[in-house]
Amino acid sequence: MHKHKLIELRKIIEEKIGLLTKEVGNVTNVKPNALYIVDRKDEVAFLQWTIRIIQWVLDQTNDKRQQLGVTKMRLELEDTNKFENMLHEKIQELEIELEESNSLIESDIIINEIETLKSVLYSLSDLKYGNKKPIIEIAEADTLNHFA
Question: Which pTM does this prediction carry?
Fold first, then answer.
């Protein structure tokens, strides 16, 4: 049975949160650098935010499906695109915050959040394109080379 890409992504993110939480618990016992623990906890918080956004998108889809009777594949594509666009917008906002940041600690937190969200986008891309992605990238590169 076909699973919604955002549901698959949510499971991947939940596994990552579990691993990070376990990692923080394990390293807390050996007294690592406090900044390391803060970074991991922030990463968990950023990932939890993405799960809330995924759930919000999925909840909207359920309402839409009941009202319109739209096909599952079309809704899934709309959902993944909506989620992807939201992450891109958030990354752009964070990049602006990073440029305006005056604090090294604040900059590190923003950089971690950007990298975490880009990681989520990368995972979503893998789910969306599977093995087709490298072929698409090669074709795009060839097209760009022809125009260069």
Answer: 0.65
